[in-house]
Automatic annotation (TrEMBL):
Family membership: Belongs to the UbiA prenyltransferase family.
Species this protein is from: Oryza rufipogon
Subcellular location field: Membrane; Plastid, Chloroplast
Keyword list, A-Z: Chloroplast, Membrane, Plastid, Transferase, Transit peptide, Transmembrane, Transmembrane helix
Residues annotated as transmembrane: 118-141, 162-187, 199-220, 241-266, 278-296, 308-325
UniProt feature coiled coil, ranges: none
Protein name, UniProt field: Homogentisate phytyltransferase
Lineage, opening ranks: Eukaryota, Viridiplantae, Streptophyta, Embryophyta, Tracheophyta
Amino acid sequence: MASLASPPLPCRAAATASRSGRPAPRLLGPPPPPASPLLSSASARFPRAPCNAARWSRRDAVRVCSQAGAAGPAPLSKTLSDLKDSCWRFLRPHTIRGTALGSIALVARALIENPQLINWWLVFKAFYGLVALICGNGYIVGINQIYDIRIDKVNKPYLPIAAGDLSVQTAWLLVVRGFLLNFGVYYATRAALGLTFQWSSPVAFITCFVTLFALVIAITKDLPDVEGDRKYQISTLATKLGVRNIAFLGSGLLIANYVAAIAVAFLMPQAFRRTVMVPVHAALAVGIIFQTWVLEQAKYTKDAISQYYRFIWNLFYAEYIFFPLI
């Protein structure tokens, strides 16, 4: 059997002819069909230039052989690259940003309050814990994708399972591993913490703030999926109450959250930096008001709804970015 790396027979014959100077041998096979009168007359009026094997250079032969093998099976590197891309989309990068920012912000706040505990070697090792948290995040978003395959084929056909880029078996493998890593995070935290419990007003604030924010995300996450939910008769708040009502409810809760944050800055000036707390949350409140107005003007099209939902996630990221400074 010929080697897989060997060029096709016509290419080898042409290359051999170019080196020896002899005409290329004619391959065995059935004789060509007789030319039609129309083609014969056309050939007589427009004769082709003579073609001999001496003009066939070795470079031309190599180029033709390369083109002939280009349609072969995809290399292993491309297969691995596609698998890596599918796994990355399976983890839903926008949720990873929230997990990473939240973890880094809380650790940064703890180090700011206890600068004597800063040990750069331990900080670098903490990134191993961040990887474990990201795997736990993959467990959460993966479960949703596995059980919503039919709906995602309508609402989010770009997701790897719905698109057929990732098998359900591989998805379950990633989910189970992400779940088991949570136990490692728990016991590693117990072993690493050496401080006694101390009440922290900023940590209590961010806990309450993000809890309400998570509620907003939970009730608005179905807004971009209304079309598929209605098709498969999935009961959600968006299908029951309508997109407009849910959008106004989510925006109203966020505005109340920001007003409460500003009030806390005035009520507890000893625990918070008012010069940061007030203008930041006022600006974020104006942002959600403006984005809700844009959604209203767009008549709640699918693109406008997706943009509104992405903006809510951006507000979530912004809160964690500013948290170490408040």
